[in-house]
Design a protein that fits this description.
single chain; alpha/beta; 7-stranded mixed β-sheet
Length: 257
């Protein structure tokens, strides 16, 4: 497997996974020019993408989907409760009808070519929101962003990832004293908002084993800083947890598993 975080954060989210028989995106929240540039750095063309897995219908996860479909006949996967809204928004924004939309039901794992996919329902204010775990060649990649809280079910689903992209959205102090209005601060720190740095660190320490590679993403540019997020993973009782922070506007490294 190959894994690449192309973009993560409120300005756009998109990740790339490749196996011997599949090249897929997880969300497509970046425009066609930027997507093409980011993929081209690694010799990949958008026309090679054969599937996109949508986590939820917020524009920073979906706004590039219509333009992508003009270049690639990709199958689009989403939770069945989001299918109608996703189709309507893509048509409304870009005039594109999704030609191959494949909704899935709650709790159902499924296959795409040589990839096994486990969607995991999470608590976020776009209903429904799912995050994903991908299995191929004996390796496991987890993507877990855009959630305000978690439980044992979510911990169990992401307990054994070789690579985990985990949300570390905000620092509570920076959020509390930042410029956002009170209602937005409440939304962010609420149970259907986003994980704080400390919540993300607590999540990792609750896992039975550390991920082989831990990536921190979906950082707020206003309410967080990379060094502040990183510090939350160095002051816990178990000691420093190895990790890599991917700020907004930065493409992550290409990982070969």
């Amino acid at each position: 497997m190959r894994f690449l975080v192309l973009a993560t954060g409120s300005k756009g989210n998109c990740a790339y996974i490749a196996t011997p028989h599949a090249q897929v995106l997880v969300d497509c929240g970046v425009g066609p020019r930027k997507l093409g540039q980011l993929l081209a750095r690694h010799g990949i063309s958008p026309s090679q993408i054969d599937a996109v897995f949508i986590s939820h219908v917020h524009s920073d996860h979906t706004q590039g989907l219509g333009p992508l479909l003009r270049r690639a006949p990709a199958r689009i996967y989403c939770q069945e409760g989001a299918a109608a809204q996703l189709a309507a928004e893509v048509r409304g924004v870009s005039g594109i009808a999704i030609p191959d939309l494949k909704p899935f039901a709650n709790g159902d794992g499924f296959h795409h070519r040589d990839v096994d996919v486990l969607p995991v329902r999470v608590s976020h204010d776009a209903e429904p929101t799912v995050m994903y775990k991908f299995f191929a060649g004996g390796r496991r990649i987890g993507i877990l962003t855009d959630l305000g809280s978690y439980d044992e079910r979510v911990l169990g689903a992401f307990r054994d990832c070789d690579v985990l992209l985990l949300e570390a959205n905000h620092d509570l102090h920076l959020l509390a004293h930042g410029p956002y209005p009170a209602f937005l601060k409440q939304r962010i720190r609420g149970k259907q908002g986003h994980l704080s740095n400390d919540q993300a660190a607590q999540f990792v320490t609750a896992l039975p084993a550390l991920p082989g590679r831990l990536l921190l993403g979906h950082l707020s540019e206003v309410n967080n800083r990379p060094e502040v997020a990183s510090a939350a993973f160095s002051r816990i009782e178990t000691g420093h947890i190895p990790h890599l922070v991917i700020p907004q506007g930065v493409c992550g490294p290409l990982l070969e598993l």
